[in-house]
Design brief:
CATH topology: 2-enoyl-CoA Hydratase, Chain A, domain 1
Helix content: 40-55%
Strand order of the largest sheet: 1-2-3-4-6-9
Strand content: 5-15%
Number of domains: 1
Oligomer: single chain
Protein name: Enoyl-CoA hydratase
Largest sheet: 6 strands, mixed
Order of helices and strands: EEHEHHEEHEEHHEHEHHHH
Pfam family, one: ECH_1
InterPro entries: ClpP/crotonase-like_dom_sf, Enoyl-CoA_hydra/iso
Number of strands: 9
Number of helices: 11
CATH superfamily: 2-enoyl-CoA Hydratase, Chain A, domain 1
Shape: globular
Length: about 280
């Protein structure tokens, strides 16, 4: 999918308080991951990893954190679908691994929808804050695919194998408050407080004992990053293999068609806004 001219879908913003912000910045597309966005995310995390400041804040512009893979970019490629999806997953996975292996604390702020790969991206944080109205949904099996972006690696470790299976196999929707109860996120906060609280949390960490925080994070991570790397490679292989199949391609196309019909119906029934109030 083509991006509007001059749009940078991912930005690195360095704050004076030592917080380095990684911002998904394509709200008009729900911060969806097509190849250009996944590569921008990979490149931005590589840039940030070279100088991560005292703490990293991962957040998104607009009302949606990340809707996951861009199905419109995935469909219509025929036999090339799997190759394209593998490229998207591989680029996104490089970003996930870089974030996971950062020596400094990572704070994630989730507003609106976190779906598909957006769930894995959200969960990579050490401290994850979610707006109470946030919505977490895996959604992969609805379109004939399997999880990527580390979701099937993070979830069993966070909530246990039974609850992880429930989320992945049934595509259950969790609010921010649900996600806190289930253990997906650190805590949920009022929607209007999310940005301030997330930055305050990251700034507090950046102002703390850098050596101690890095060492503590290293103890928490252990050698898990090596296991994640191998796991991410298998996730990319599996999702690409499924994306090449007829079932996934049909399901993705059907999903988009149903959404387009719903939007068309909504536009017909919504009262027309006045073009001018003067």
């Amino acid at each position: 999918m083509n991006h509007p001219v001059n749009i940078q879908p991912v930005r690195v913003v360095r704050h004076l308080d030592g917080v380095v912000e990684l911002r998904l910045d394509d709200p008009g597309r729900g911060n969806a991951l097509d190849l250009a966005t996944a590569e921008a995310l990979r490149d931005a995390t590589a840039e940030m990893a070279a100088d991560p400041g005292g703490a990293v804040l991962l957040r998104a512009a607009g009302g949606t954190f990340c809707v996951g893979g861009d199905l419109r970019a995935f469909t219509g490629r025929g036999e090339g679908t799997g190759t394209y999806v593998h490229a998207v997953a591989t680029a996104a996975h490089a970003a996930i691994l870089a974030l996971h292996e950062l020596p400094v604390p990572v704070v994630t702020a989730v507003r609106g929808a976190a779906a598909g790969g957006g769930v894995g991206l959200a969960l990579v944080g050490d401290i994850v804050l979610a707006a109470r109205s946030a919505r977490f949904r895996l959604a992969y099996t609805d379109v004939g695919l399997t999880p990527d972006c580390g979701a099937s690696w993070f979830l069993p470790r966070l909530v246990g194998p039974r609850l992880a299976a429930d989320l992945i196999l049934t595509n259950r929707v969790l609010t921010g408050e649900d996600a806190e109860r289930w253990g997906l996120v650190t805590r949920s906060v009022d929607d209007e407080e999310l940005d301030l609280e997330a930055h305050r949390t990251a700034a507090g960490l950046a102002a703390g004992s850098g050596d101690a925080l890095r060492a503590a994070k290293g103890l928490l991570r252990g050698r898990a990053g090596h296991g994640l790397g191998r796991h991410l490679a298998e996730e990319a292989r599996q999702i690409a293999a499924l994306a090449d199949g007829r079932e996934a391609q049909d399901r993705m196309a059907s999903f988009l068609a149903a959404r387009d019909r719903a939007r068309a119906g909504d536009s017909r029934t919504r009262p027309r806004e006045p073009e001018s109030v003067s």
